[in-house]
DNA sequence: CCCTGAGGCTTCGTAC
DNA sequence: GTACGAAGCCTCAGGG
């Protein structure tokens, strides 16, 4: 079996597929490395802030608030969409008797 | 090894532990059975509703809206708590010069 | 026959339909609440197990295996039923509901 | 020495502190945005892989294994460092940053 | 067959 | 430093 996935179709055969697989793995690992680097940068910022006397926990709270505010706005739009969608499909409670 | 978990401490030994394990499994399986029963009840309600001519998808939307509304309210309280917490810990931007 | 219960797509009109809709929503929400309660009970069991030193993840795996075994058994029974049906035989027993 | 940069718990007072706080928040939010962008890139790679017929779950397992191997290797290096440190030896090389 | 949504696993931050 | 709790990520099941 030249392919990795047990349950998958077997795309192409031989070296091409292997090269493709290696490429996928390399790209993901590179991206994850970058992601980790950024996470470390964030830690550095907090460490610097702490070193300057700031209450890091409080700053995290602020960031959380800002994030929640923004997601709340998005959620409100979501509710509106869902609501309109539901309205478009309902009997609409009309009192047309019969 | 009388215990299941590889990485766990090994609580007690012999038959008592086994009985306890069996009890845990039995309780969980019973509860999951009950849970599945309720899920089936819900399906029945929807099936009945569909049989009565209702647009089940629309009703699901309504339920979703009601759920979102309520979680939005809870989230608002969350924001308030978080905000108060942040306020309690911050320099408060006072302009007291020095 | 009233305005509900027939095959029309949308039971418009009248308080009865509204009441019926409210009933559907109430029943589903009640059932979902019960479902959540049971889910919480399951969490409690696991928490207690963890407190007693058990490896919860391993226990979950056991439960999963038991479930697979059981569904395989059910599958076997299904095959049996199919064969019996094909042979014009009646099921020997109804399962008693609890 | 200004009002920031010392060891006081709370750099109160003045616009400089506020500016510094704003800067911290902005930097963290920017970095988190970048982080999210990279996470999305990773998703894209997996989506493309899936589109080419690969078993994404299997690839994830490979990545996990490679990560474990690597951290075991790092652990081994850590042990080496520890030994060398205990022996009063200096590290042979610094890792070049990229 | 796709897609959304719930559930479980893992990691990171916090409190003791 | 250890253990608890929360947040993000991945998986899988159910519905459209």
TrEMBL record, chains A, B, C, D:
Domain of life according to the entry: Bacteria
Residues in GapR-like DNA-binding domain copies: 18-88
InterPro entries linked to this entry: GapR-like, GapR-like_DNA-bd
Coiled-coil region(s): 21-48
KW Coiled coil (keyword) present: yes
rRNA-binding recorded as keyword: no
Pfam family, one: GapR_DNA-bd
Keywords: Coiled coil
HAMAP family per the UniProt record, alphabetical: UPF0335
NCBIfam families per record: PRK13694.1
Protein name, as recorded: DUF2312 domain-containing protein
Biological source species: Gemmata palustris
């Amino acid at each position: 079996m030249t392919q990795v996935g047990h349950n998958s179709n077997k795309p192409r055969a031989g070296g091409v597929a292997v090269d493709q697989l290696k490429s996928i793995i390399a790209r993901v690992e590179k991206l994850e490395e970058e992601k980790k680097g950024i996470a470390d940068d964030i830690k550095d910022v907090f460490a610097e802030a702490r070193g300057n006397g700031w209450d890091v926990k409080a700053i995290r709270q602020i960031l959380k608030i800002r994030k929640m505010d923004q997601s709340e706005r998005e959620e409100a739009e979501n509710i509106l969409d869902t609501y309109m969608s539901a309205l478009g499909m309902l009997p609409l409670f009309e009192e047309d008797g019969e």
